Each structure stands twice: as structure tokens, then as C-alpha cells.
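Researcher: We're teaching a course module on how sequence relates to structure. For the next exercise, students receive a sequence and then see the predicted structure as C-alpha cells, so they can try to spot secondary structure elements on their own. Here is the exercise chain.
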Amino acid sequence: MSWRIIYVTNANKLSLNLNSLQVIQEDEKYFVSLTEIAAIVIEDYTSIITTRLLIELANQGIAILILGMNKMPVGEFLPISDNVRTTKMIYQQCNWKIETKNKLWNEIIRAKITNQIITLKLLNRTTKLQMLIDNIDKIEDGDRTNMEGISARIYFKELFNNDFIRFDDNLENGCLNLCYHIVRTIISKEIISRGFNTTLGINHKSQYNTFNLSDDIIEVFRPIVDYYVFNLLSEEKYKGLEEINKDLKICLLDVANYKVKFSGKIYSILNVIPYYVSTILRYMEKDGKSNFEYPILNFDNNDFI
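Model: And here is the predicted structure for the students to work with:
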């Protein structure tokens, strides 16, 4: 099973050698088996990558994430299709019932807010916790009361501080955005491998977004990522840092290997995504008559919430 996120910052050439990624750096050559790679992140504006490697990465469902001059993701390379039943699956996806979508979205938002509550409890940030707990009971059909947005505003100000604005240009948001993007890329790869289309979402419907379904599925992971980033930035070596450096970026990319609980077992985020995506797709296939399970932070006390 793949588990590596390969981060390329200084390479002359990336190519295929047998079933391995070959990285040439001046007079040195490095090899990584493709069977170990979940995704490749490239932050190098001079690297050459061969078409033969791109073809094999697509064949094996390995994603490439390209970072731009601002050090943040600007593009990704994903397979067009990785399943022989793609046409059948997309036809089914187009016919998902709106009632089931709304019901599932309610479940996702309840799970997301629950994970926000767990995150704040674990970090001992409990001043406004009851507001989030109350918001779970206020979720209506398709979250028409927007408890997701209301809860997010409360949550982020409690998590960081009252001056925090989610999309400001600062270190915290930069770290969150990079980690979210890594998780979303892995989710997108999983969706495509099952023959579904990332554009056709459950709740997200933007005509400008190629990843509406991925953005639906990632919601329950966001508070888990927040917890990971918060603890990372709390380390002494990162205090006072104003922008993401190389050492911090390597740690952020490792978010895919962070451990979570799902159905009573422990998985990395990378390895739990296939199980969670299966839960989502099964829920839609069975018109909401299957159990909805979701990943949560790994903590010892089962009576925590």
C-alpha cells in the first residue's frame, strides 16, 4: 500500500526506471518504488519530468501537486479515469437523489462540527464550546440554516484568536491550506479510481470548481488537519516564524500519515480515505439506508464527547 509523499525541491530530472521514480540531482541518482508513492509534490522551477513517467504515474493513480512561486499549490496532475466502469458510475452519480444528498450533507456537517468540538476540547479551548454543541441540534435539511458556516466562524476564533480571519495571508492559513490541499488531492485520486467524477458534488456545486465532490468529502477531515497544524506551530522551533520554511513544509506534507480513528481502528489519513469514501458512496447508493461512519482524532477516552 502506498504511503510516501515525495517532496521534490532540487532535481535536474524526474524519470521512470523500471517501476521506480528516478530522481537525478547533479551526479546523484535516487530511486523510489512507485508502489510506495501516494503523491509527488514538486517545488522546483527547473526540473525536467519525462512523459513516460507521467504516463506511468497516471496508470498507477499517483497524483502530482505543483507548488508555485508563492510556495502554495497551483496545479495538480490526476488520471482522467482509473476505472473501467467510469461511464456507469458517473451516470449513477448524475442520478443521485437530492433528498439523499441533503440527508448525507447533514451527516457530514454533524461530523465536522463534532470533530471541531473534539479538537477544541483536546486543546483546552472551551469558552464557546457549548455554542458548537448547540449548533449540531440546529442543523436542518441540507444545512439550510448554515450551521457549518456559523460554527466555522466560532471555531476558528476559539482555535486561534478573535482576530483570526480564515482567508487572511498569514502563516496559520498558509499551513492549513497546504495540508487541506494534500488531503483533497488524495481524496480526488480515490474518487477517480472508483469511476466517479470529482466535479459532481453532494453540496458543493460551483461551476468553477473541478473538485466539488472532493470538497464535500474533505469537510470531516478539516478539524483533524487543524489540530495537526496547531500542534505543529506550537513547537518551539516554529514560534515567531512568519512564513513556511522547508523544514516546516516537510512536516506539513506528512499530514497524510497522521493517525485517526475510524470504526474503532487506527489508520493514517492516507489509509483511512478509501474506507471513508466507501462510506460516502455506499450511503448514496443505498439512499441513506446505510451507516454513516467518519474519521475522528485519535484519543484514549471513548466517553470524550
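Model: If you want an answer key for the exercise: The longest helix spans residues 98-122. The chain has a mean pLDDT of 94.
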